[in-house]
Amino acid sequence: MRPLSLSMSAFGPFASTQVTDFSALGSNPLFLINGPTGAGKTTILDAICFALYGKTTGDEREGSQMRCDLSVDTLLTEVTFSFALGEKQYRIRRVPEQQRAKKSGDGYTVQKPEAQLYRVDSDGTEHLLVASKVSEATAEIEQLTGLDADQFRQVMVLPQGKFRELLMADSKDREKIFSQLFQTQIYRKIEDKLKLQASKIRNDVRDHRNKCDGMLHSVSLDSDEALNAELAEVTPRLTQASESKDKAKLALIDANKQLESAKLLVNDFDALDKLQQTATHLAEQKEAIAERQLQFENGQKAQQLKPVLDMSLARESEVAQAQAGITQAQFSKQQTEQALTISQAKFDTLAEQEQKLQDVQSNEQYLNSLKPQLLGLDGLEKELHTAMLSLNRAKDKGIKASATLKGIELERQNAELRVPQLEQVASELLNVQQTLTAQGELIERYQQWQVAGNQVAKTEQALKLAEEKGKQFRLEAKEKGDAYDQLQLIWHRGQASILAQKLNPGEPCPVCGSAEHPNPAHSEQVLPTEDDLESSKLVCETAKGVLNQVIADYKGLKAQLQEQAKLRDEYQQRLGEWASHPLESLQSHLEQVQLQVNHANAAAQELTQLRLQLQTWLTKERELQHQLEADREYFHTLQNNSASLQGKRDQALAAIPDQYRSLDALNTAINQAQVLLNGLQQTIGEIRQAHTQAREQDAAQTEALAAAQSNSIRATQKSDEAQVDLNGQLAASGFENKQALTQALLSSEALKLIADEIAKYRQDCIANQTTLAQLAEKLAEQVKPQLAEFEGRVASTQAEQQEAEHSWQALQGRVTQLTQTQKQLHEADNQAKKLEEEYAVIGTLADVANGNTGNKISLQRFVLSVLLDDVLLEASHRLQVMSKGRYRLLRKEDRAKGNKASGLELEVEDAYTSKVRPVATLSGGESFMAALSMALGLSDVVQAYAGGIKLDTLFIDEGFGSLDQDSLDLAIRTLMDLQSTGRMIGVISHVSEMKEQIGTRVDIIKSSMGSETRLVLP
């Protein structure tokens, strides 16, 4: 990872927004971060770490604690960091939780933490990867860099006072870091995969054994031999049961056949009874069918006369319609005669209406001629009104501008008097802030001392309870042990009595071999059984286990108490004389100092805002003065224009009559004239049209009346002819009159239904007679059987068959069950043998890969130990240069005690003594050189191996002050040599020689208004 730029707003000691462009330092820079104590040098590293992971490099302060107290309320605390990973560039912005001023209204609101991550193309185009969630941004950064926050702090930053952590890390911590850097997780996956496969095979073997036991248990047997014996005994019984089942089945089939034959004969007798009943019912319907036959014949004759009847009825309807037409024509003739009389009277008034039309047309033309003149006058009125409005607005604007100018001048003068007062109060801000910080740290140490004291008291109480508990459980364990020993003694002494109880006369004694037993042993007390003895032993062992656990807890509490008491004493020693003061007095003093800080901070913020406001007021005064002069000239121009428009308006007004000087009044008069004109024209046209229509309609109704009278005569003649024809047909067909014909008349559907009914009756009679004769002949010599006798025989035979079937099924099921179980057991045995052979290979590999054999080193740790050797080779080369050939870093190869992880610890070889000793024995300066060499060696090896992690940047925070002059020169020369390898090295140091030899710097400038950054290039 290579930093490109860093932007900090209201972060740490930086009150405003500070941007550091790392790309301006060059391609492979060695630069110094320089500044006085408390200026914010380490804050640069905190900001980078916070932007990436939401944590500071020391992990001692939360992001919400990094807001600068000197910042204005409107400036949000945030950090934006741009960096490169290989050829790709990214930008991340992170905002911590904080109190910010409300956007509207007074007061403050809580700003929730947020983060945005972008990928930046070479042309500057940004692609949003994370929108706002801080957890998602942190996870994405860990995915991109391959490091979490703790790993980043150990391999890319040597934090102030914590460089020894890189040296002192144990195998477990170093394995976690190296596996990320060298991407060796594949070996861990191999370990886990082998372990998982071995565990699965073990479980499969156990499952197969349990499965075999379950198979035998499912058939209520204990062994394969018992299964084979039962199968040999059951098979002959199954053959005999099968033969009995087949015989019973044949007997049941014969009984069912006899029952079915009896049922068929009973059905024939029942059918004969039903046919005889049907014959009686058909005889009863004979007269009704004869009546339906007569109705059918009359309907057929009436159907033949229906056309003649329809014609007669149609002619009668035509006569009625013709008579109605005459009546309607006579009424319409009367209406048209009346309309003609009315239209003639209106037609006689046309001359008077035409004269009125000419008068209205003349007046309408005169009014239209006035409209252009009035429109011109209206335009002049509007121009004059607009000019007067502009004149009044210009006057009001000038008055307001003068008042505003006077108000601004007064506010500026008052503010200039306020500035010296605020400057005096704000000058004390830095001092009271330092006092506040010191007092806060003092209270924090005091509270830590109190917490440590409370923990000591709680642990002492817990230790006392544990001691009492130990005494109680020790007594219980002794009682249980004594009881077990006593029971065991009784059991051993009673063995002779137990053996005597099993002796029988004439049988040899298992001890002496004698067949005579004249004086067998016996016991006076109840002897315990082996189960009683085993139960007592279990109770005794359980009590001892509980006692051992209580003793272990007591020792743990005692060690914990020693650590807590040591921590409490350290806190008390750091407090010094302040430990005798109550916490309330310290907090009261803190509140007073906080009030002073708030007062000074408010004054500083007010001073900054007031100075900005003064500049704004001066600019506004000049703008208002210039605007006021321009407004005065514009006002005089408007006055002259208004006077000119007033004269033109008066001249145009004199040429128009008073009643028409309003455009609305003139338009109303014109509209009224047009309405009257249109009304007269419409009335004249309607009179002429109505007179013509009345004459035409009267003539047409005269012709219609004559036609209706002629049509009525023709219809009457045709009706008489049709009636004569109908009477002749009725007489020939035997119907008395038209009413008799109408009653006999049926539809075609009704005639068909009657014919079908008669035909069906005849068919039913024939079918009944035929079937009745056949069935009577068939049953002439038969007797109706009793079905109960046959059904009883079937029931008894069926019971015998079911009993035989059940016996066979039970034996068949048992044989099938035993046979399948025998086959499954054989298959399971074969599978278990294969699994055991497979485990012999996989299990051994899993034990070796997971470090369960030999020196207890896992596969991944073995690979990492080889990589660590490469790192130590590079690191030792630099350490030997800086230590003048004295020290060389080595990997500790001895196995750690107990189950502690080993294989990745460090040792140092001292050329002066020719001995190897722990790295913890190095001094402060020696530890710094070793840690620096380790970090540089790690960077070299990681860069050399193919992988996704780029360690091309290193920040070093302090540590050079612990070196002598020669070691310092060697360390600086080592860092300068790294520029040729493409590394960026950032150093934080107070050592003056560093500033003299490193020309590229990021200077931190400290002031009472907050710190600022500045790049210094050679």
From TrEMBL:
Gene Ontology BP term (one): double-strand break repair
What keywords would UniProt list here?
Answer: ATP-binding, Coiled coil, DNA recombination, DNA replication, Endonuclease, Exonuclease, Hydrolase, Nuclease, Nucleotide-binding
**Chaperone listed as a keyword:** no
Q: What Gene Ontology terms describe what this protein does at the molecular function level?
A: ATP binding; ATP hydrolysis activity; endonuclease activity; exonuclease activity
Annotated coiled-coil positions are: 377-425, 554-610, 663-697, 787-838
Question: Which InterPro entries does the record match to this protein?
Answer: P-loop_NTPase (IPR027417)
Q: How is this protein organized at the quaternary level?
A: Heterodimer of SbcC and SbcD.
Q: What does this protein do?
A: SbcCD cleaves DNA hairpin structures. These structures can inhibit DNA replication and are intermediates in certain DNA recombination reactions. The complex acts as a 3'->5' double strand exonuclease that can open hairpins. It also has a 5' single-strand endonuclease activity.
- Protein's name according to its UniProt entry: Nuclease SbcCD subunit C
Organism source for this protein? Shewanella sediminis (strain HAW-EB3)
